[in-house]
Specification:
single chain; 344 residues; seven-stranded mixed sheet; 14 helices
Amino acid sequence: MDWIDLRSDTVTLPTESMRLAMAEAEVGDDVYQEDPTINHLETIAAKRMGKESGLFIPSGTMGNLLAVMTWCNRGDEMILGDRSHTFLYEVGGAAAIAGVHPHTLPNKENGTLDLAAVENAIRTQNIHFPTTRLLVLENTHNACGGVPLSAAYTADAGRLAHEHGLKLHLDGARIFNAAAALDCTAGELTAPADSVTFCLSKGLAAPVGSVICGTKEFIDTARRNRKMLGGGMRQAGILAAAGIVALEGMTDRLAEDHKRTTQLAEALETLTGLTLLQGKPQSNMLFLRIDHPDIDADTVVARAFDKKIKLSARNRTDMRLVVHYQIDDMAVNRVVQLFTELLQ
């Protein structure tokens, strides 16, 4: 019996077509910008995002840090949500490495920030204040339940930022999930952003990598900052080859993951001792709470492991389940059976 892993969509394994593309990839030295496979990936990625240029990077965390480093000077300030990935899960890199001060605002349940609060948070010119340079949004918004941010909201946020001389960076780690959920193109969602990072190694199943996109001038500076961070790779076309397959072959199937997430939610919400958090899932993430006198989330994780199912607990009561392309209908049924046996 195969393992089922719902801890994250980062656990996806590359497809056979990706492995073949990696084996056959034409490569060169990417620091010299001479790797043809890297160059091709960056070109098609930028086109999908509606931007001039792209830059292949090892991770989304590095991409978000590069955006902060490129748009801001040390001692500047960025505005972002208190539940954003950049603030919660990126080891404080913006402050520790870039020297940029985070000004957090409360995320609403739909992942957005109140734009009136954003405007009020923008600093006036005063010798006592840091200079506000950057607004950061996230789409889909992980900690708010994998909810997608609409193109209209992002456009409003972009207008506000630009009216006040700020740049807008979009942490689009799962931007193609957002596009699938909203039935639009990724480019429509990223159009207002001055820069955007998206991951190849989550739902798109490539083994490594992300891409950051923006203007040519922005990418030229980000490339230098990437080198500073140790992200200048050499014959990395082997990795980029899988990313090309991901962009060309995996984005259109993400709706299948969303459908299975909904099926899983509908089955689990009928069980006593389990509550769905944040309502019906809107993409490939399901958040739930264990409210049972004899079972907590850690117990569920341990019992699941015995059944060759990998789950993770966010705390004693709460869990996040993430569906990806290796989770089929049979896997959904096994997970439902596990929870049914534990909670009955």
